[in-house]
Amino acid sequence: MTIGYPGTATNLRSRLVTAVATVLRLPFDQIDDETPFSALGLDSLAAAELTAEIEDVLGIELPLTAVHEYPSIAALAHFLENGRPESAAPFARMRADAILPADIAPVQAHGSVMKTRDARHILLTGATGFLGAHLLRTLLDETKASVVCLVRSRGGDPLSRVHANLARYALGDERANDRITAVEGDLARPLLGLSPRAFHALAVQTDAIIHGGASVDWVQGYDALRAANVLGTRELLRLACHGAPKPLHFVSSLGVCYSTLGPRALQEGADALDGLEGLRLGYAQTKCVAESLVREAGARGLPVSIVRPALVSGDSVDGRSNVDDLLTRFIAGCIAMGAAPDLDWRVDCLPVDQVARAIARCALAHVGGVDVVHITAKQPRQWRECVLWMRLCGYELDLLPYREWSRKLAAEATSSHPLYPLRSFFLHRVAGEDGLTLPELYEESRRTQVRDDGSRERMSALDARCTTIDSSLLDRYFDHYVEEGVVPDVGARSDGGAFTSTPSIDALLPAVTRSLAERLGEESLSVESLTLTPLGGDDSIVSELTSWREGAAMGLFRGALELRSERGIHLQRVIVKVKPSDERVIEVAESVAALASPALGRAYEAFRDYIGFTRSHVRELAIYRDADPRIRRHTPAVLALSPADEATRWMLVLEELPASTLCHVDEHSAPWASTHLRAAISGAAEVHSVWYGLEPELEVQPWLAPMRDAKRMTHMSPLWDALADHACAHSPAWQDAEVARTHRRLVTDVAQWARPLSELPRTLIHNDFNPRNIAMRAGKEPVLCAFDWELSTIGVPQRDLAELLCWTLSESVAKEEVAMWLEWSRVQLSRAARVDVSPADWELGFRAALCELFVDRLAMYAMVDRFRPQRYLPRVVRTCMALQRHYPWQS
Questions:
Q1: CB contact at 8 A, 873 and 731
Q2: Residue 744 to residue 736: CA distance in whole angstroms
Q3: Which end of the chain has the least Cβ crowding within 10 Å, N or C?
Q4: What pLDDT does 499 receive?
């Protein structure tokens, strides 16, 4: 691109100096041609203002990224006169910067290097920043070392700035004041801005270095950030090698892994420099080059480590955040716009205190050589799920396609808008990337997947794992956002605590004690103590968000009962399940549907009573109260249930099934072994036999959801249409043309295949019969143990069989194998119910059940997958398609 400025070079430079002086409020004589704008105090907000000022002064239109890509008077003037340079030149310069000068090498004559854990004086950079404040606090708390903080000169006492920053984030502690000193310096200058004498004195004093300082910016280019981030790292390595070698621990970023030219997955040991030309963010480029310098110093014998954290967010205790960071501005900007971009982003944000602890403990445990550690969240969230959470809080947000959202941002982002300084990050299309912007390049389907298996083991050993990103943590962040005026207080959020507090089950303890005494044969049994901890898990977004909305301890908890008997004291583990009301669950499910698409939200609301959640809060308890041995044999042992007349909460205390008995499932699950399939089908047949032939008696049970006959199923066609539209438009599992075509045909034929589902014999079915809710009791032969009966209903028993086979058979399964299991299930039900089940009717019901499973349940999973990835879904859909081919519905 050539701007073609018509005036003289002298006139152009004079006008640029005037613009810079005006925006940054600097005297003209402080601005020369070569000084980087960042060194003059240019930040993201000032960059946006400077761009607008230059456009006004020169009467031209500038690219949003111009002052970042050409970050000095000389560079910007050259661009305005001559256009962009060849694209390969910047990367050649970066690779040249990645070569560590030969004179930076540890002197080997000093013998062994002091370990960081033994350091008496630790040099810390970045102590006046957000992460740096927490690093300083952690080093003071977990070591006895004195900490020397390198602080850039901004007038005033540097030590006072350090203490003021600690106080800003409520991290001050006068007891440790005498262990903090500060040295005025500058990462962007040779020898860190120190005189040779001061540089030597600092090197002699220092035993270890933790380099957390950097210029963090999401819009400035490599050249603008190079001095602080690259050259500053080089000078710190020079300090580390000056005199006695000193371990250096470098805080990098997971951003170095997100190269568009990198491998699909990147391990900790991979050299990020290999994918440099695919890194499109200036900050990530500088970290990548700096990493290369650190690696080379390590290869020359300096003990070094590289820590790559994901996005750093507010602290885990009270949510105190850096209100000027990318995440906070992005959230505030979306709320201000009433819209969020529909992006497949994984929100891997880490509480700053936990990141600081992980960095410090990695440094203190470092022995030697070159270590690389990835710090990630225990359970990242999907961006759309965060948007859903904000909607449930009361913030009116719509999901818009990215290009529509970006046009809205461009139109609305005036200078007071939270995203005004970040416009170029969201709007600038990256050259050579098919017109995509950086946010689009960071979608899960495009970016490199970062592996952290080794790092998780190390973090666990150091007791430095990062927490799950749950609704309670988001609550704390928003409490601070509201307090700081970043977002409005809409007053719809709960008080939080649903995932950290625990329920009281004191009223159920007598029943639990009696049950355990009977099971264990210990009449004198008593409960000494009970400890409950949230069980967690990431399967049900509706359950988790419903629990959060209740503002009370809901969901699954693992209980540890300390029991006393004549044999002494021993531990008994149980599962406690606290259930919200069906109305709360339905409200959250409606919000999921409405955010997925307005049409789906309207249809879901219209048929809310027939989705399956109605009376779910009492249904499972009723089934567990059923004393029929055919049900009890295939469900968890019940130790206690809420009283039948309980009106405010519904609780179950069940045996904890050993982990080895659970039938886990993921996207790569192998087909089930025949022994387990036989056990599951035989066990289901026993349960089905309880009410088989007794449908009139079953229909009047007060805990069942409203019935769905053929007429009702046909009447619900708007919902089936909306689910199909959503799945075909958004689910990767539906991108196969045959899948979409089959789905549309089944929706059209609903009146035909729904008829046999109403007319064939029906019974009580599990209706969520898949490996997520199944265990196998060990013995001579495995025995089914099915749990989570909330969705159980009246239906043909083939419905449970169809779901089980979709989850447990291979997508390449032959029809002969499916026929074998179909016949096995018919025989087992005939035997258990003592009736003669017609083979033709059994097959007809199976064909119809496959249709309902596809149109209803799998399409619902596709809706949930939009907000919380259901990794197994593509494989299950492929297997369902295979079964459809073998047993198609003939309309």
A1: yes
A2: 13
A3: N
A4: 44
For residue 88, the SS3 value is: helix
Residue with structure tokens 């000095």? 72
Q: Hey, how many other C-beta atoms are within 10 angstroms of the C-beta on 47?
A: 27
Separation CA 42–CA 658 (nearest Å) = 59
Q: Tens digit of pLDDT for each residue in 202-221? A: 999 999 999 999 999 998 88
DSSP letter for each residue of 232-275: HHHHHHHHHHSSS---EEEE--GGGG--TTS-SEE-TTS-GGGG
Assigned token pair, 249 = 């621990």
Buried b (16+ CB within 10 A) or exposed e, 118-142: ebebbbbbbbbbbbbbbbbbbbbee
The dihedral over CA atoms of 744, 748, 752, 758, expressed in degrees to the nearest 10, equals: 80
* Residues ≥6 apart with Cβ < 8 Å to 856: 720, 723
816-857 pLDDT, tens digit each: 999 999 999 999 999 999 999 999 999 999 999 999 999 999
Would you say 400 and 339 are in contact if contact means Cβ atoms under 8 Å apart? Answer: yes
Residue 24 is predicted with a pLDDT of 84
The span from the first CA to the last CA of the chain, in angstroms, equals 61
In the prediction, which pLDDT does 489 show?
92
Give counts: helices (H), strands (E), the chain.
Answer: 36, 24
- Summarised one tens digit per residue, pLDDT across range 369-405 is 899 999 998 888 899 999 999 998 899 999 999 999 9
Residue of 468, 287, 295, 266 whose CA lies nearest to 374: 266
Q: Say which residues have a Cβ less than 8 Å from residue 850's Cβ, sequence separation at least 6.
A: 802, 880, 883, 884, 887, 889
In this structure, which amino acid lies at residue 219?
V
- Please report the DSSP string for 773-815 in residue order: GEEEE-SSS-EEEE---TT-EEE-THHHHHHHHHHHS-TT--H
Regions of the chain with pLDDT less than 70: 1-10, 44, 84-88, 109-111, 492-501, 536-540, 550-553, 644-648, 664-668, 891
DSSP state of 868: S
Exposed (0-12), middle (13-18) or buried (19+): which is 592, by Cβ within 10 Å? buried
CA distance 766 to 746: 23
- The type of residue at 525 is L
Residues 6+ apart with CB under 8 A from 358: 307, 309, 373, 375, 459, 462, 464, 465, 466
Contacts of residue 102, Cβ cutoff 8 Å, sequence gap at least 6: none
| DSSP letter for each residue of 605-650 | HHTGGGSS-TTHHHHHHHHHH---HHHHTTSPPEEEE--TT--S-E
Would you call 313 helix, strand, or coil by DSSP? strand
The CA-based dihedral angle spanning residues 204, 207, 209, 210, taken in that order and rounded to the nearest 10 degrees: -150
Under DSSP, the state recorded for 724 is H
Burial grade of 741 (CB within 10 A; 0-12, 13-18, 19 or more): exposed
Bridge partners (DSSP) listed for residue 558:
533, 575
Element containing residue 889 per DSSP (H, E): none
Does residue 823 sit in helix, strand or coil? helix
668-698 exposure pattern, b = at least 16 Cβ within 10 A, e = fewer: ebeebeeebbbbbbbbbbbbbbbbbeeeeeb
Place of tokens 């500038």: 62
Distance CA 696, CA 496 (A): 44
551: nearest Cα among 489, 475, 604? 475
Q: Return the HEC string of 523-554.
A: CCCEEEEEEEEECCCCCCHHHHHHHHHHCCCC
The burial class, CB within 10 Å (0-12 / 13-18 / 19+), for 115 is: middle
The pLDDT of residue 495 is 46
pLDDT of residue 9: 63
Q: Which residues are bridge partners to 530 per DSSP?
A: 561
| CB-based burial, 557-584: b 16+ in 10 Å, e otherwise | bebebebebeeeeeebebbbbbbbbbeb
User: Residue for token digits 């070159």?
Assistant: 370
